[in-house]
Design a protein that fits this description.
elongated; four-stranded mixed sheet; 4 helices; alpha/beta; 7 strands
Length: about 160
Amino acid sequence: MKQWMKKSLAACLALVMCLTLAACGGKEGETPAEESVNVRVAALKGPTAMGMVKLMSDYAPVEEALEDKENVVTAGGGNTYEFTLAASADEVSPKLMQGELDIACVPANLAVWDLTRQYPIDPASFQSKGRSTPFAGTTVYGENLMTICGGKAVWQK
């Protein structure tokens, strides 16, 4: 599979996961009241934003919103979507952390951890030549199980 297809699929899956989690609120049997919500979405220019193309094209621009911003569209339920396309992840990440964005589609490097697993620190198992540590033999919580960089598993236990 080509690299751009993998990135597009990852962006689509991330968007679906975010939207699925957003829909999980409320109690069973309770019908939530329909409210207009402003959803702020950002992605990187290029393949990362390809997963949002359908969302962007499905909704017609709202004339009132166009007076303030050119990139605001509304969904059939009255929700508005504000799209931002950025040149680098450095522009998107701070906005997401500060709460200025609701959804961010950026390529990710990941580390998979099991925070419940305990293990003793063993300098012989270090992946570097430096084995000196004051924590040898100390039992700790949280073990790295896999590291993903550039979409590829570069280390796995």
